[in-house]
Amino acid sequence: VFKRDSYEHRATLTENKCAKDLWNLMARKKTNLCVAADVGTAKELIVLADKIGPEICILKTHCDLYPDFDDAFGATLLELAAKHDFMIFEDRKFADIGNTVVGQYSSGVHKIADWSHITNAHIVPGAGIIDGLKQVGLPKGRGLLLLAEMSSAGTMAKGQYTEDAIAMAAKHPDFVMGFISTRPSAWKGAWSRGLVQMTPGVQLGGGGDGLGQQYNTPDRVIKECGSDVIIVGRGIYKAADPVASAAEYRKAGWDAYVSAL
Ligand code: 5FU
């Protein structure tokens, strides 16, 4: 078991507003479950978010998946986030030069910075991508996750690449709030405990999906891999009863956290 400090304590170790809000939210609501709501339409997403809202700390979106995305999307999600006490994470995976991501984050069809508390970026372009996103996001109190590792088979995000992500995060403690990671317990480089570790590729049955996704159980992800937030998609929204399934994942994730303290 990878031993951790409480979420309450870790809230005191970050300089990023979003990370502080998230640590405190998780502690108060007693959930470390993020749902990846990769459903077919924005309409279905809103219905799902209202139903599972009480179980989650974060609702993760892919806004370019929904054919009915419109200008009301962000405001509706923010209302649900306030109603149920969760945060919004647009999993945009920005990957361009600083100047381009400024426009992609603030403008375009989706105007992500206006409604998403959290977003993420690949570090492949170098640190300029963080500077660009920060110009837009920091004044709005947003937080950025760096993709230090991925859950998919054959990922290139490993070894020195992961170490470079750790170093880049350390240079931007005001804006970088954490990482997408799969096994931070095995990282060699030192990282601030104020940073949040979020892990996708989580399903109670383990296994994979035939397209490269690799699943670990919530218990293993929290206790062995050293993660703080479990990200669950199909395990919940494809279940016969998504609300019951979300409750089950929430309990598994929380029990694992408590036993890792
Ligand atoms: F950064 C990553 C990653 O490394 N793996 C992922 O699976 C992000 N994801 C996302 O998590 C992916 O885009 C889905 O939105 C979600 C996993 O969904 P699943 O249905 O639980 O496999």
UniProtKB/TrEMBL annotation:
It catalyses: orotidine 5'-phosphate + H(+) = UMP + CO2; orotidine 5'-phosphate + diphosphate = orotate + 5-phospho-alpha-D-ribose 1-diphosphate. Keywords: Decarboxylase, Glycosyltransferase, Lyase, Multifunctional enzyme, Pyrimidine biosynthesis, Transferase. The active site is at D91 (for ompdecase activity), K93 (for ompdecase activity), D96 (for ompdecase activity). Its EC number is 2.4.2.10, 4.1.1.23. Substrate binds at D38, K60, S151, Q213, G233, R234. GO terms for molecular function: orotate phosphoribosyltransferase activity; orotidine-5'-phosphate decarboxylase activity. One of its GO terms (biological process) is 'de novo' UMP biosynthetic process. Residues 32-249 form the Orotidine 5'-phosphate decarboxylase domain. Pathway: Pyrimidine metabolism; UMP biosynthesis via de novo pathway; UMP from orotate: step 2/2; Pyrimidine metabolism; UMP biosynthesis via de novo pathway; UMP from orotate: step 1/2. The keyword Glycosyltransferase applies. In the N-terminal section; belongs to the purine/pyrimidine phosphoribosyltransferase family. In the C-terminal section; belongs to the OMP decarboxylase family. This is Uridine 5'-monophosphate synthase. It comes from Micromonas pusilla (strain CCMP1545). The chain holds residues 224 to 484 of 484 of the full protein.
